Amino acid sequence: GAVCGTRVLDTRGQRLFAMVLLWSIPCGSKVAVVLFLASVFFGSAAPLFGLVYVAMIFASFWLSSKLFGNKLMPVNERVGMIMELPPYHKPHWKILLKTVARNVWAVFKKAIAVIWFVSLLFWLISYSKDGNVEHSVLYTIGNAIEPFTQIFGMRWQLFISYIGGIFSKEASLGVMSVVFSSTTDAFSLVARNEAGANLGEMMRAVVTIPEALAFIFASMFNIPCVLAMGTTYRETHSLKWMLAIAGYYFAISLGLAFIVYHIALWVL
Predict the structure, then answer these.
(1) Which one of 131, 155, 225, 251 has the largest count of C-beta atoms within 10 Å of its C-beta?
(2) CA-CA distance, 174 to 45, in Å (whole number)?
(3) Minimal CA–CA distance to 122: which of 196, 175, 166?
(4) 213, 153 in Cβ contact below 8 A?
(5) Number of Cβ atoms within 10 Å of the Cβ of 90
């Protein structure tokens, strides 16, 4: 919705720059994932991560303005925004209910489609005949990429969860419940609920504090979701700019994970 709101800006450069900044602003799901992981590893200190998150958002605004500001908004185009507001009337409750129901249903359908797609994808690549995830394609891929992902402080399970978060932030926790369990049965309803309930314990048993910090900070600036990417592409009419913005945030998140991980290794 916020990306669509950039239509009121005067120039294409202003709209593109606004979209770059908007991707820094977290949705409720991203905040929930960050705070959940912070509470798992840091307990009562978890609220401090919320304050750090806000500070990092403002820092990302400053960085984005330095990297994109002069190119997208030359000094001679930096003018105030004037809007003519239409006359407002008292809303009719029937129209409000129909609009809310239609929008809720549209979001629900999109969310179900994304969750179904992610679940199906990870079920296919984590399937094995004997039910052991170590004999699956997912495990093979994970072990192949781990020498690279470990540079950023993420063992393959965390990196796969990080990639799953691109589809939706809720999906990253679902992926964790699978990759940190020892069986592909985690996709069954009963086993998935049990894995979800014990996710914190499973992660604390194998994930170190530096790795947890790396994943938390990477999650803060991970690409919002595929829906946000699709909306950005639709509003910019440019695959190049959509990929450029996605690549920018991909670099920020992994760069931040790299810095935090190696500082934590040195300090802790």
Answers:
(1) 225
(2) 24
(3) 175
(4) yes
(5) 5
CA 6: distance to chain centroid? Answer: 21
- Stated pTM of the model: 0.78
* Alpha-carbon 262 to chain mean position: 22
**15: amino acid identity, one letter:** R
d(CA 79, CA 77): 6
H/E element, 41: helix 28-42
Give the residue among 14, 146, 12, 8 at the shortest CA–CA distance from 79. 14
Q: What is the pLDDT of residue 82?
A: 65
For residues 180 and 154, the answer to whether their CB atoms sit within 8 Å is: no
CA distance 109 to 78: 40
pLDDT above 70: percentage of residues in the chain: 84
pLDDT value at 40 more than 90: no
Give dist(CA 139, CA 157) in Å, integer: 9
Local structure of 3: helix, strand or coil: coil
HSE (side-chain half, CA atoms, 13 Å) at 135: 7
